[in-house]
Amino acid sequence: MANSDPAILRKTVSRLYDAFREAAETVGNISSVDVSIRQHQTMSLVCRLTEEKPNGVTLKELAEAMKLAPATVSELVESLVKKNFLQRVQNPEDRRAVQITLTDHGQMMLDQCIKCVDSLCDKLLSDLSASERTAMLAALTKITTRL
Hints:
- The protein is mainly α.
- The chain is built from 6 helices and 2 strands, in the order ααααββαα.
- The protein has a two-stranded antiparallel ribbon with strand order 1-2.
- Helix 1 (5-31) packs across helix 5 (104-125), helix 2 (37-52) packs across helix 5 (104-125) and helix 3 packs across helix 4.
């Protein structure tokens, strides 16, 4: 593999993905619950969106935010409802509408995942000097903004 900028970035992204997947599997083992990365992403997004909409988000809003088909998101939501991580709540203003929210159990699992990922990040950054860490995080912030 060449040491070009794109090749280094591809290799880094691939290794980070593997490391985060392993971290997620560790959390699943701690909790005795099988949570896929996609399910974790769904729970994280519901958590973030409900900060703006405390009554919950609709399936359509969630699908749009995830850039996935509503049917795909519906299956994800259903699997997380069965695991008691998400719940469907009837909208008091429109009885036909259903809002999706995180359960207390789902919030606890998400908190565990965040601690695990934060620990992994701390480990990854531990060998960097303060100036290297600052420069890397500034560069990652720019990359994230472009994405």
